[in-house]
């Protein structure tokens, strides 16, 4: 039933296919790359696309197509490394705050409000500046800034669930709080969590790439789309392909993931069934 409803949304289906292609490149990119992405040939620097180099060469003479393939693994996988820890931590905090309320709710949600008081990207920059600029710290920073979104959404959904009759019946039968949370609340939160995670992946990829562009994420000579954009900006007028190609791949992936997220939201919304 889920697949039948999902495939009716043509834009979401196209987004799923496009995102799957990028994910395939991220997984098998090193096997498909025709050249070593770190091998330099200064005699061929900023070379335009040709039969030997499908996307040309960058400012250091490295094959751009090979770097795009390797960069897909770095950039796309960074989104998953961000969203799964943020989802698990944010869901746990949201459930605890919504179910127990009182002091637990106050401590958790005031902490989330403190994080939300800062623009998320400014907070990410502040965290990376404190920890040091590299890809791992950029991922940690984006995880921290992504947690409040999950916590607030999950708390609101939990507050609606704990008033349900089957929750009251389970309490009357003597079920423990942990059992109620695990067997009754978490399964009913899967829909909104999946939708939020699918949209959050796009935001996470964009944030990690933006930090790389600013020199606070992946460091040279790592193949990462945001860093590749930064390395090519000095040649934006003379050799625009150095920035356009990684930019197009990044925009293509983010758009496809957003289309999938919109499709999941419409498919899992019980009001549209």
Key features?
single chain; 273 residues; mainly alpha; MetI-like fold; 10 helices; 74% helix
How would you portray this structure in words?
- The protein is an all-alpha fold and 273 residues long.
- It has ten helices and no strands.
- Helix 4 packs across helix 6 (135-161), helix 5 packs across helix 6 (135-161) and helix 9 (225-232) runs antiparallel to helix 10 (241-268).
- The longest helix has 37 residues, at 64-100.
- The radius of gyration is 22 Å and the shape is elongated.
Shape: elongated
User: For the CA atoms, what is the radius of gyration?
Assistant: 22 Å
Structural domains: how many: 1
**Architecture, CATH level 2?**
Orthogonal Bundle
Q: Quick one: CATH superfamily?
A: MetI-like
Helix content: over 70%
- What separation lies between the terminal Cα atoms? 10 Å
Strand runs, count: 0
Q: Roughly what fraction of the amino acids lie in strands?
A: under 5%
- Low confidence ranges: none
SSE topology string: HHHHHHHHHH
* The CATH topology: MetI-like fold
User: In this structure, how is the largest beta sheet organized?
Assistant: none
Assigned CATH class = Mainly Alpha
Q: Determine the structural class based on helices, strands and strand pairing.
A: mainly alpha
Mean pLDDT: 88
